[in-house]
Design a protein that fits this description.
By secondary structure, this protein is an alpha+beta fold. It has three domains: 309 residues, Neuraminidase, CATH 2.120.10; 106 residues, Tetratricopeptide repeat domain (Serine Threonine Protein Phosphatase 5, Tetratricopeptide repeat); 195 residues, no CATH class.
Length: 707
Amino acid sequence: MIRKPIKIITVLLSVLILLSLTSASAVTELESEQGSSYQYGYWKNVLSAPTAYTCTSSMNLRELTGASGSLEDLAMGDNGECYVVDKKNNCIYVLGPDFSSSKTIKEYTVNGAKQLFMEPEGIFAAGGKIYIANTAKPNIVVLDSEGNTLQVIKAPSMEDMTTTVEFEPIKISVDAQGRIFVISRNQTQGIVKLNAKGEFIGYLGAIRVNPSALQLFYRAIASDEMKSRMLQFIPTEYNNLTTDSDGFVYCIVGTLNSADIYNAINARTAATRLPVRKINGLGNDILNNTGIFPPVGDIDFAMYGSEGGSSTFADVTVNKDGIYSLLDDWRNRIFTYDTSGNLLYVFGGKGNALDQLSQPVAIAYYGDSIYVLDKATETVKCFTPTTYAKNLLDATKYHLLGEYEKENQLWHQIKKEYISSDLAYLGIGRNAYINGNYDEAIKYFKMINNKIYYSKALSMSARKKMEANILWLLPVFLVAVAVVVIGFRFVLKAMRRSKSPTVQGVLYGGYVISHPFDGFWDIRHEGRGNMRSATVILIAAFFVDVLFTRFQPYLFNNLNMAETNVFLRGFSNIVLPVMMWVVSNWCFTTLFDGKGTASDIYTATCYSLFPLVLFVPIILIVSQVFTADAQSIYSAMITMVYVWIGFLLFSSTLTIHQFTFTKTIAMILLTLIGIAIIIFISLLCFTLLADIIDFLSSIYKESFYKY
């Protein structure tokens, strides 16, 4: 009696696993076809996109200087000059606009004496000044555009910085007020902040570290010498930074791993640990993160393998409109985001072609052009926007300026040229919302699964319709409620008059859910309820789950309905768990002197699903008018139904088998363990079956090709 259900369960689980593997292989195929220009849809699907940027010019510094170097950073001057730091050769290369000229700066002046740069690693240019992180000296050298020394900032004292780690500047940026922000190697207190005179004024954006219990224990027993050694191996929290025109500091967090990025992607806008931060004067991260996905680079990636792992960023740059680009040095791509965190476009890629990169280490804006420093090839490349990227940049700019008509025209143009552009739909939807066309906005927001804006548009649309039709909506609503109540009472009376044992058994479910202990006792000892009625309840629960999956309010449905088989999902949510629960519970309760038979367990389990059959359709109807603000109410209602079902399962196990409270808890735990064993055996059987099929297939192929 038990073997047959287990066989069925094994086959069904095998089918489900096969379907999931098919889906995973499809994702892998998409990843392999991922080109240099693409976008991501709401369901992490890769969408091809028009080329955003192309490399229009480049300069090979190895050919220019005749010697190999170690290029670490670049900066763009106000007039289009490009400044490149060479750590190995201890110099700064100055490239004229459009690479029209070049010169080398190898020294600076201190009190009239010439000094050589010592392993510089960072550079920034603004306001006609060049700021150089002279790492090994260590100091910060400020030059004018001609290379003349304006200022030499000495390292702050460790006493002032309240640290035992020496100042070692590796990256630098400056805001419009002349305040200097420095990343110092092995400084974990945050970004070093200096005033325009070079005086230390504090740290900015320190990241809170949550040490493990083992680390706390080791630190408690370690000597002072051991603690000082430990500090030397603490990784730098930030690995690069820049400032925008408003004085905000954008920085790259260098201590995140693929697991952190994966969690951020799944959390979507709720993510707290991101690889990029926007820090204000108080040290708070104010980065706007309301896009489809957080700004983490590639969304769909393998966790392991030679090409596995998330994007890792080497640098960040911001243009005058607040649009920022992240330089991925793992897959050699540039990801560009707007002020809300929406991914605008991706370009670049690993390779030796003109539009590709080998080892990018630095990036900077000049106007809309993007300059990238490639360390491996010792090349500076200038990427300029295509018409497609230019339209995206202009549309974003017009939105910030409040010129919505111009913005809307560009979004419609982008949609016409690139039909899969979620950004265009978002822009058109936003403009429709601003103009009061809420139904149109709802349509576009739903197309791109933007539930935040969808909820706002839905709320405004409902309010507008309510205000326009309030005089007749209320009477119609009251009449509809009356019709439903009268109809329900009529059907209920008709069922009660029926002499069918099946109908009466179904009605008995109402008594069971309100009097669980008495109800399950009568099922076991008085013959109330029956297997046929229980099966009807099970089938009803299955169809309720199907309807719930299919018609669940859009705001609360996190499933990709285009790829969801509602009947397969209903079977796996309702029928399969019931089968496994019955089999597992019968096995263990029989061993521990349970009084209930297999038919009793099956009947009681199905009757435990009655709250789902009775109340979920009501929740489904009522929730159709909910907005996102009612998320907690909706979740609470669903949770209460399943808590009720769990209590009924507990009551049925206790009553039918005549167990004590403690023994009932133990049996439920054993039942759950048994279900886990069934799943494990099913997976094992599926794996063995797959291996056998693969073996037979290989034999067939060899025989076919041989003969």
